[in-house]
Design brief:
- There is one protein chain.
- With 155 residues, the chain is mostly beta strands.
- The chain is 15% helix and 44% strand.
- β8 and β9 form a beta hairpin.
- The N terminus is likely disordered.
Length: 155
């Protein structure tokens, strides 16, 4: 009896209308926590969230606030003689039930000091270092769908 119920549930799930989220579709994201080149390393996972509903054919397929996963794609700590830190993240995916929406795109930050300041201070203070790169919580990041996927409406 249980096998019959499971089979009927699977058939019912397939009858749910699905909407195609096309390759290249824009997904607005934001960082959940602040990131710094001082503490982040290449390969670290990063928590992101959607900042707006993603709508296909008039139906919300990814609601605002849905968690997304990104990764630190480049990180360099500040260095001597004014060398600034660098930090870049890239979105990886959004999980919607059993489906993964593969994402592409990138954002980065480079801590900087003006060239004149670096030259002037480096001559006077040999121990001068650059600034760490920072990406504050809530930093906007536009991601793009890398592969078309069919998703059901969530509301």
């Amino acid at each position: 009896m249980l096998a019959v119920w499971a089979s009927a549930t699977a058939v019912g799930a397939q009858d749910t209308p699905r909407h195609t989220l096309h390759m290249g579709a824009s997904i607005p994201l934001a960082t959940d926590q602040p990131l710094s080149s001082k503490t982040s390393a290449k390969g670290d996972m990063v928590s992101l969230r959607t900042t707006a509903d993603v709508i296909v054919d008039g139906h919300v397929v990814i609601p605002r606030g849905t968690r997304a996963v990104g990764q630190v794609s480049a990180a360099r700590a500040k260095g001597a003689m004014g060398m600034s830190g660098q930090l870049a993240i890239r979105p990886l995916y959004i999980r919607m039930g059993d489906s993964f929406v593969r994402l592409g795109g990138a954002t980065g930050e480079k801590g900087s000091v003006t060239a004149g300041a670096v030259i002037g201070i480096a001559i006077l203070t040999p121990g001068f270092t650059g600034r760490s790169a920072m990406i504050p919580a809530g930093t906007a990041l536009e991601a793009f769908v890398e592969r078309a996927i069919d998703l059901p409406a969530v509301r």
